[in-house]
Design brief:
Layout: H1 3-20, H2 25-36, H3 42-48, H4 68-78, H5 82-85, H6 96-105, H7 109-119
Length: 129
């Protein structure tokens, strides 16, 4: 995937995650500051979500130059992995083992979680069903 394509996909993922929570850019800015103590401007949040080449700042690829601390905060806030945000995987989970199994089997994480619930015992062990 080319850098611009990766930047636009990353922007779409960030926008979808924000929208799924029903947050405006100002709401997100305030949430990140109160939870993590980081100050990201509304303008930066907007730039991280540029997802088409017709935007005047599209060439900047701002999200690919994002501070690592911001990236980690986004991943933690949304409950996804940094690899998902960086478009290195299509699996959202931050659980590395679950992500590996999902990528290997092709099964969605939700399906794997259902299987684990069905096959788990009260003592926390997994039965092989």
């Amino acid at each position: 995937m080319k850098q611009q394509e990766r930047s636009f996909e990353m922007a779409r993922r960030l926008k979808a995650l924000r929208n799924a929570r029903g947050l405006s850019h100002n709401d997100l800015k305030n949430e990140l500051q109160s939870r993590y103590g980081i100050k990201i401007s509304r303008a930066s949040l907007l730039n991280y979500e540029i997802d088409d080449e017709f935007h005047s700042k599209a060439d900047a690829l701002s999200n690919l130059k994002m501070n690592a601390e911001y990236l980690n905060c986004f991943a933690d806030f949304y409950g996804v992995s940094t690899d998902f945000l960086l478009c290195r995987t299509i699996v959202k989970t931050s659980d590395a083992n679950m992500r590996t199994v999902s990528e290997y089997t092709g099964l969605p994480v939700e399906t794997l979680n259902t299987i684990l619930k069905i096959c788990s015992t009260d003592s926390g062990f997994v039965l092989f069903c």
